[in-house]
Amino acid sequence: MKRIIQYIILVFSVSPLPLLAQTATEAYRLSISDPVGTARNLGVGNSMFAIGPDFSAIGSNPAGLGGYGKSEFLVTSSFTTSTYSSAFRDDRLNETNGYFDKFTLPNIGVIFYTRPQHSKWNSSNWSIGMNRTSDYCKELRYTGNTLGSMTDSWKENAAGISPDNLNGFEEGLAYTTGAIYDFENDNIYETDYNLNPEYALRKYESVFIEGGKDELFFAYGADYDQKILFGFSLGMPFVNSTQSRYYNEDDGIDNGVPYFNSLEYYSFIHTSGYGWNGKFGIIIKPVKQVNIAVAFHTPTKLFLIDHYNTTLSYDYTDDEHNGQIFSGSPYGTFNYALRTPWSGTAGIGIIAGKSGFISACAKFTEYSSMRYDYSVNGNGHYYDQIEHDVNDDITHKYNSALQLNMGGEIVIDKLRFRGGASMQQSPYRNDQTFNPSYHAGFGYREDHYYIDLAYVLTKQEDGYLPYETNDAPPPLVVTDFYHHRITATLGFKF
């Protein structure tokens, strides 16, 4: 296996194409819009969509802004601790446990109340604020023994491409270090793992994700004769996310794969950007005690930029070499756009005078409509084929999904007691499972201020693929998360 000479020659000649970070999975992560919300809304299961005056409910149905009868300023803080248990689907006995914590400010904003004189319009209100619509913070570790190798993915992606045109952030590094090679010079690559594809390699990975998506919004809402409330908002989301991952494969003590000893792959990606969207909503009160509400959210066009780099170390032993070959990519940037899915929500609220309320809503999101656009910022049509392939992958992997929310509030003098539940359907095709959340809350209200507290327990099952292949067993990692969130909101009326 006389490989080392050609690797040294090619170490600086691999083509610096963009890192393949714009995957279908990444499109879904960037498209999630699930505001953390105020403590009041969280306490009732995020179900105040049809009830009206709550700051985080404005983010789902701007018509609720018309229900305010006073101006208001508020701020919310949240602390979450999460535990997880992860294992390969094909090696469930090797289970890895861990935990991580995070602190966020889910929203801050102000509502300006006005009432037109000598009119049936009871309110004409404006609001400006910031909502955290997605929280990306996550940690994941796993280890286990499964068939297949990350080199299978590099081999497949490199097929038909000459060595000097390989992606300089993945396949190029694999060729440079000897993880893939081409003895026949036919641009069809081989790997050491091909010599014994029935051997289960030990795999380990740690993944860290930080950041989130915050949305600055301007909203207007009005109440006509306490019978119809309507509203609209213009949102400007900001994305800021960092992902770092360390992946390792090791041969066993029985030297199951000839020549191969180990590989270590590291990647770093920082994603930032902004976008625009609109929301429209209406609440109809057929009778005083009943609210019926609908809202529509336009897709968001996100303009994003990735900054990234990767390194790969491949360790093998043959007659002429024993040890590691290391290669690192240049620091790359890539500009692109993503259109997130549209969604529609409908809900009902029943108000028991000053004694409280019960409410429920259902949100429909069409995740298969997510689309990347690589032609922005002067890219032209250079990446048309890559764009087509990843968008086709989105269409085949994702489907529409429902989110169901229900809850209620009981009023006892100045105290508020709340409870609720929510269910989030999986967006993946052929997967109709729901992840449940359980909510509880407490509040105290005076004429000019209020304090709300909420607790939410969420159980979530995630599937994760460290790499994707068509011709080898998929290394699916199944992780059970338990998220415990405590949220507090402080508001002032004026």
Any chance you could write out the topology, listing elements then pairs?
Blueprint: H1 4-10, H2 24-31, H3 39-43, H4 55-58, E1 72-88, E2 91-112, E3 121-135, E4 138-146, H5 150-158, H6 171-177, E5 201-224, E6 228-250, E7 260-287, E8 290-297, E9 301-318, E10 321-328, E11 332-339, E12 343-351, E13 356-366, E14 371-373, H7 384-397, E15 400-412, E16 415-425, E17 434-445, E18 449-464, E19 477-493
Antiparallel strand pairs: 1-2, 1-19, 2-3, 3-5, 4-5, 5-6, 6-7, 7-8, 7-9, 8-12, 9-10, 9-11, 11-14, 12-13, 13-15, 15-16, 16-17, 17-18, 18-19
DSSP E strands, number: 19
CATH class: Mainly Beta
CATH topology call: Porin
Enumerate how many helices there are, as a single number.
7
Q: Largest beta sheet: what is the strand line-up?
A: 1-2-3-5-6-7-8-12-13-15-16-17-18-19
